[in-house]
TrEMBL record:
KW Iron (keyword) present: yes
Entry keywords, A to Z: Iron, Iron-sulfur, Metal-binding, S-adenosyl-L-methionine
Species name: Thiorhodococcus minor
An MF annotation (GO) of this entry: iron-sulfur cluster binding
Keyword hit for Signal: no
This protein's name: Radical SAM protein
Highest taxon above the source species: Bacteria
Length: 427
């Protein structure tokens, strides 16, 4: 793929014609698709999503419907689909084809319009040392530091020059973004350029984050794993009391400054915290948050590779594996079986706070970069060529490692394994 192969917004509008547009995927990528289409004068009718947890929700004031309900009323003459699901785009495309919708005529895949999905780690530090995360289980790290608002503005301007279908900037990866004192200004800049912003936080600290919410981020995730004492086992270094205080503050700040902000509690399912999810569901119902969940993953992929290769692992990795509800061997068996399927991360760019471009957002080795030097000095086509020619990516995909975190996130597998109690009620 090259940047010249992507249709212009006017060409996309001509393809859609007078049909109503439906976005398949009601999370990150769906938000981005909605925003990009609106920026180019293309309206949307609603969202399609198979996740039960999204049913009954509204995104940007528009309904979320199940695929069966959508296909019951949609026709080729009346509906056009933009597939905006990272992990399952190929499955969704196949489902569209089975219902007579034609690729590049009746539906397009968002990831084929944009060059990359941009993950900007504005914070090179975290206050926790979670044993399932490289911040807690890796001994070598990239330099610590924070991206300034001035540098962030330069970065955004370059992204939009290179990639006009960009709709959302994810302001985190391995760092805690709320530690960056420039975050309110960074969110403001993102809004100024017509982009959505996504934040994920552990909220387990003493910080005044009201200015962040007042800056109006689009989407705010709280990462949790358990309730009371079980929470602190895997959110290592976290403080339950501070977390709860901040959860209620977040709801208060949202209501005061930005009622439209989407708040998601992202629950990591371990063997010891299975039943606690019901208490989180009750709290989400009380505060108007959305609950999402996945089997707790062993991160980063460097650790997955060490396990399957039989290389030594440290005590923190062993502790994580001992608590997991879904074991690495089972995950990799399933991941290897679907190794021919696409890599969700292949069209992501992880840009570190110092503008280094990491090779992959799910591998962690500090010396593993996609290109040398600063993101600001590399062209879009050079980044594409580096990704397409990567032997590291080729080896990862040949072994099925690239599908590992997709398996951890598979909600159908969670239901099949009865990994949460009364799964039908967690919607």
């Amino acid at each position: 793929m090259t940047s010249a192969a992507i249709p212009t917004p006017s060409q996309l509008q001509a393809l859609i014609g007078d049909r109503t547009v439906h976005i398949w995927g009601a999370r990150h990528d769906g938000y981005a698709a909605h925003n990009v289409l609106a920026r180019h004068g293309i309206g949307t009718e609603g969202f399609v999503d198979s996740s039960l947890s999204m049913q009954g929700e509204r995104v940007f004031g528009k309904p979320v419907m199940l695929p069966a309900d959508f296909f019951a009323g949609a026709t080729l003459r009346t509906a056009f689909i933009v597939i905006a699901s990272g992990f399952h785009a190929d499955e969704i495309a196949a489902q569209c084809l089975r219902h007579g919708f034609r690729a590049d005529r009746d539906f397009v895949v968002q990831s084929e319009l944009r060059l990359f999905n941009y993950q900007v780690d504005i914070s090179g530090s975290c206050n926790l040392r979670c044993i399932s995360c490289p911040r807690g289980n890796f001994d070598e790290h990239r330099p610590k530091g924070f991206m300034s608002a001035a540098v962030y503005r330069e970065l955004i301007e370059k992204i939009l020059r290179d990639d006009p279908y960009t709709g959302i900037i994810t302001l985190y990866n391995w760092g805690e973004p709320l530690l960056n004192r420039d975050l309110p200004e960074i969110v403001t800049i993102t809004n100024e350029y017509g982009l959505l912003s996504a934040i994920s936080s552990n909220l387990s600290f003493r910080l005044d984050f009201e200015p962040v919410v007042a800056a109006r981020p689009t989407w705010f995730r709280i990462s949790v794993s358990g309730w009371e004492g079980s929470y602190e086992v895997t959110h290592t270094g976290g403080n339950w009391t501070r977390l709860m205080e901040n959860v209620y503050r977040l709801a208060e700040y949202r209501d005061r400054h930005h009622p439209g902000m989407m708040v998601e509690v992202f629950y990591h399912i371990y063997g010891h915290n299975r039943d606690d999810i019901l208490r989180w569901q009750a709290l989400c119902n009380e505060l108007g948050f959305v609950l999402r969940y996945r089997h707790a993953a062993l991160a980063p992929l460097d650790n997955i590779e060490s396990v399957i290769d039989g290389r030594p692992i440290n005590e923190r990795v062993r502790s994580t594996m001992g608590l997991q509800a879904l074991q690495v061997e089972d995950v990799m068996h399933r991941a290897y079986a679907e190794r021919q399927r696409p890599c969700y991360y292949e069209r992501h760019l992880w840009i570190n706070w110092d503008l280094a471009v990491a090779h992959c957002m799910e591998w962690y080795r500090p010396d593993l970069n996609l290109v040398e030097g600063s993101f600001l000095d590399v062209t879009a086509d050079e980044l594409i060529a580096a990704r397409d020619g990567s032997q590291f990516c080729a080896r990862c995909k040949a072994r099925g490692i690239h599908r590992c975190f997709v398996v951890y996130s598979d909600e159908k597998l969670i239901a099949e394994r009865n990994s949460i109690p009364f799964a039908e009620k967690v919607v």
